[in-house]
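Appendix C reproduces, verbatim, an entry submitted by the partner laboratory led by Prof. M.T., so that reviewers can inspect both the input and the predicted structure.
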Amino acid sequence: MALLTRLSEAYIEAGCDEVGRGCLCGPVVAAAVILKEGFQSDIINDSKKLSAKQRAELDLFIRENALDYAITELPAEYIDKHNILNASIEAMHRSLDKLHTRPELILVDGNRFHPYHFIPHRCIVKGDSKLMSIACASILAKNYRDNLMIQLHEEFPQYGWNKNMGYPTKTHREALKKYGATPYHRKSFRLDYNDE
C-alpha cells in the first residue's frame, strides 16, 4: 500500500518518530521531518521494513529533499531519570525545537504524545507505514541510531551491538550475564539475566 504524502493539504505537517525504546542500552533517538510540496518516493516505508543499504540511501535522499528535518538523541541517564516514554516524547519535542520551519500540525507515530507549544498533533498507530513524513522520520532516526550503536560496539564488542543495536538478543543477554552492564546500559531496564 502506498504511503500518504500528506494528511491534510491545509497545514505544514511535521512527521515524528523515535527509535530505540525497547533497547537495553544506548540513547533513544527521535526525528522530525517536514516534506517539501511534491516530495515523492516509491521506496520509502517504515524503516523496519527496509534493508540497511536502502535506509542509508534513503537517509541521504531525505536529507537532500526534505524541506526541514532534525534529529535528537537522549542518553541512558535521561531515560533512567524520566522513563523511556517521557524520554521518547522529549526527544521528539527537542527535534521539533530544532526545525527552522514551524509546523502547523504534528503527526506522531504511536499512541502517546505530550502537547507541544499549542500546535495540534495527531497520534497515528503504525504511522511509519501510513504517512510519508513519519516514515522519513523513522528512517533518519534508525539510521542515526544504528550508526551510533556500531560505533559504540568498537568500545564494547562483546555485546554484539553492531548486529543487535542494543536490543535484548541472546548474544546481548549472555554478555550481560558474563560481563555485567556498561555505562551505556539503562539501569532502569531489566539487565540481570542470571536467573534465567
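The two ends are 42 Å apart (CA to CA). Additional entries are available on request from the coordinating office.
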